[in-house]
Write a structure and sequence with these properties.
Elements lengths: L5 E6 L6 H14 L3 E4 L4 H4 L9 H12 L3 E5 L7 H4 L28 H18 L5 E5 L14 H15 L2 H8 L26 H29 L4 E2 L1 E2 L7 H6 L5 E3 L7 H11 L8 E5 L6 E2 L2 E2 L7 H11 L2 E6 L27 H20 E3 L4 E5 L1 H9 L7 H14 L4 E5 L9 E4 L7 H12 L3 E4 L20 H6 L3 E6 L6 E4 L2 E6 L1 E5 L5 E6 L7 E8 L2 E6 L2 E2 L1 H18 L12 E8 L4 E7 L5 E5 L3 E3 L5 E2 L2 E5 L4 E6 L1
Helix pairs in contact: 5-8, 8-13, 11-12
The chain binds beta-D-galactopyranose.
Beta-D-galactopyranose binds next to loops.
Amino acid sequence: MTKKLYHGAAYYPELWDEKVIEEDIKLMKEAGINVARIGEFAWHTMEPEEGKIDISFFVNIINKLYENGIETVMCTPTPTPPIWFTHNHPERMYVNQNGETMGHGSRQHACTNHPYFRQKANEITEHIAKAIGHLPGLIGWQIDNEFKCHVSECMCKTCQGLWHEWLENRYETVENLNEAWGTKIWSEYYHSFEQVPQPHPAPFLHNSSLSTKYRQFSMEKIAEFSDSQAEIIRKYSSEPITHNSNIPFAVDNERLFENLDFASFDTYATQENKASYLMNCDLWRNFKKGKDFWIMETSTSYAASLESYASPHANGYLKAEAVAAYALGAEAFCYWLWRQQRAGCEQPHGSVISAWGEPTVGFQGVLEVEEMRKKIEPIMISTRPLQAEVALTYSDQAKAYFQTEPHQQMDFRGLVTNFYHHFVSLGIHRDVLPESAHLEGYKVLFTPFLPHISDEYRERAVEFVKNGGTWIVGPISGGRTGEHTIHTDAALGKLEEVSGVKALYTYPLDGTGSKGTAFGESAPLGLWSTVFENDETTVGTIKGGNSEGKAFLTESKLGNGKIVHLGSLPIGEEGDILLKKIIDHYVTSADVTVRTNVSNGTIVAPRVGENSTQTWVIVNMDGQGGQVDLPAEAIDEFSRESVSAGKFEVGPYEYRVITFK
Ligand code: GAL
């Protein structure tokens, strides 16, 4: 890929005739679309009959787009196996948790572990890679589409066999499994791996170990499928490979991207969910550190299907979203979709062009994005996102633990997003890091909502602390083993040994009238909590409830740094104030400097140039306009005029780019 900023759209030329395709290409050029993503649902067009594969339609499209200055990301079409694959073959289909077998007619209906699926998927991908891999217009690949977005763990017979194999590889003997899972409970005891069930319908809940391991098994299998597809493509093409993923899907994104070349995600966050949009950018930047990510899909205005629709973006918001993404490390900002579908189940979905070939309500926004893209491109190319000093761990493994044990319908994504939001409103530049990311260059690490802290993670964090870092652990972190069981040495296992704290009880503080006080603020505490002994490590104490006088916040010195246990979540409005106070306290005392005094609704994305000069992209995202304090004199990148230190204003949805001297 040559270095540029991409502005793209998902395109389905197989659904339209030649005249419409001509018109589309003309309109794409007018709208400033420089990359199209194609092919992800077109298996039938490529292989209308089993074994009769012809990719020439897509070869022509890619060439035609290229002649018109539009490059292509080619997808493999494996989410939609055609009718010849599915008809009369229930054994090849996905089986859901209720034991229902999926039929033909939507997508993700096949079991991606079925050997015949794998065989046919490999074949089609090999044909595509051969036919397309060398085309000059091709700049990248996308494997499949949104793995596990509609489905999660498959319960078919194929998966059952693979599950048993997986368990055997992992535990070696069934006795090891019995011991690890504590299967004497409720007479679950197994005499062979073949007896271990899938988490199929049962009168009450399954053993937590079984449920979580099945999720891990499934996440591993889909990543293996992606690996094998990537391997085939690499035989014929040197263009980089990605997958368009997202946080809520039943995948382990960190594992998935391990063998891919760049990270990309899809987002349909509405304007109210700006925090989730920004968190995605801060996370996806870190799946392939140092490499730009792609926003592979977003709507120009609103998402919709036959059954629902979201609120359209306000005029001006799309540009704010796009500039924030580019500034936070995106190389591409792409829409789903170019031309509104005329058929199928997503006809109402927002697009760039309507089914009848005219601009949609989102079109003006697309033009604004393009105008902005051209303006910022040279600056984005000559600078990189600045590594933050504050890191927040995000883990899809934790997501799996929460799916097995949601306590009270808690979902990991929601919990982390709310926690994350405080960093944005405190103007703290942050990286959201996958679990095994290195911690060099960070000053503060937050590990909330990670039920299982692996030895590897703990050791890395302890190293970080010994070297002077501050590690804030909790809430709900560390209380479960790698088998999703309870520690039997101490409530938080080895963690207590390293921090020297004594956890007394773990129980929910909601509704108990417990209030936490720390740093002069006080608020109700909630969620599943860990209560600590009140001793020399205590920083925050509990008033009221069952644990009057005990601690919910502790601090222990270790090497040159400290470990902080946050045992409970401050809740409600007062809770937000207290939590912010706690975050602010540790970020301030760790001398975090990459931080801005910015008004709510406006963000600063700091970037760094070759000679270490800092460039700030300041974006108002709430349409209210805002301001930020500039710590020093700077240059406005567009007017080239000098701007003085002090208050700096941005208008509604406006963006400004300034570089410090
Ligand atoms: C994504 C999917 C697209 C389209 C879009 C609609 O999840 O990848 O194919 O369905 O949602 O918002």
